[in-house]
Amino acid sequence: MKKFFFAIAIFIFLAISASCVKASAPIRILLVPGHDNAVWGAEYGNLKEAAMNLALASRIYDILKKDKRFEVYITRDKNGYTKEFVDYFANNQADVLAFKDDAKKKMQKEITDGTFVKKTNAPHNSVSEDVAIRLYGFNKWADENKIDAMIHVHFNDRPRPNVWTKGKEKGFVIYMPDSQFANSAKSVDLAKSVFAELHKKYITSTYEKEKGGLISDQKLIALGANGTLLSSVRSILIEYGYIYSLGNSTARQKKYDDMAKLTVVGIQNYFFK
Ligand SMILES: [Zn+2]
User: Fold this and answer.
1) How far is the centre of ligand 1, averaged over its atoms, from the C-alpha of 156 (Å)?
2) Is the predicted pLDDT of residue 145 greater than 80, yes or no?
3) 243 alpha carbon to ligand 1 midpoint, in Å?
């Protein structure tokens, strides 16, 4: 009889382990290095934010790629938009436009009904229609491709007299979706996990509207504005520091390496700890 129970116990153990292995499909991450070669974001001297975002995001990509628990995608690389996204935008232009317009209409109705409450957000540069469509397209793609987390990589800026002048603000900030959005709770936990790592080395933004370094937002398309990201698609937007505060080329490369490592640890801790 004892042997019988032992055999049953082993069988149950094996069945459970098999289902666990099956359940642990890789975590799907989409990295979005902010802006692109056409609209490059902030500028300091000869430095362009889009190139900095790409340098850092590529390092995050390379580290995550080696971790078999993750499947990692990136929207652009040194050759421009990756094939996935070139094809996606070529084949889904009308659908992306409809996705954006429908979401806006739905949100407008919720605001009128009083089911969604508008708040004031930290100021962001407004984006052109083309840029908006691209960002909504990333959200649509992420929803359709069962992405678990989108990580938007940026460097920050505040108005300065000219591109050669440094500003006075410094430090990093992580933006996360407003609590009224479906993907908020999970995104906030992910943001906190990455924040904990970055904060070991870097101070949080000294800009008054980014105080504390973790800021909710309802306007940023990247985070799922107008309810365009499913509850399963976490999204965070990291401004790693002010564009003029990274030092010379050698110092910058070191910081990219360092920031990438810390970000990955934050992501790994959130999903596996
Ligand atoms: Zn930016």
Assistant:
1) 6
2) yes
3) 9
Mean pLDDT of 208-225: 97
Q: What letter does residue 227 receive in the DSSP assignment?
A: G
Question: Which residues line ion ligand 1, judged by CB < 5 Å?
Answer: 34, 41, 154
251 pLDDT exceeds 60? yes
11: Cβ contacts below 8 Å, ≥ 6 apart: none
pLDDT for 123 equals 87
Over range 69-98, report the average pLDDT: 97
In order of their start, the domains of the chain are 27-272 (3.40.630.40)
**Mean predicted confidence (pLDDT) in 114-143:** 93
**157 Cα: distance to centroid of ligand 1 (angstroms):** 8
Question: Residue 108 Cα, ligand 1 centroid: separation in angstroms?
Answer: 27
The DSSP-derived string for 71-88 is: EEEESEETTEE-HHHHHH
Q: Residue 248 has which token pair? A: 């010379």
Q: Where are the alpha helices (DSSP H) in 154-272?
A: 184-201, 249-272
Q: Which of 9, 259, 30 is nearest to 143 (CA)?
A: 30
Quick one: pLDDT at residue 21? 46
Q: Over pLDDT 90: what percentage of the chain? A: 87
Distance 25 CA to ligand 1 centre (A): 32
Q: Where are the beta strands (DSSP E) in 114-250?
A: 149-156, 173-177, 214-217, 234-242
Q: Which of the 8 DSSP states describes residue 57?
A: H
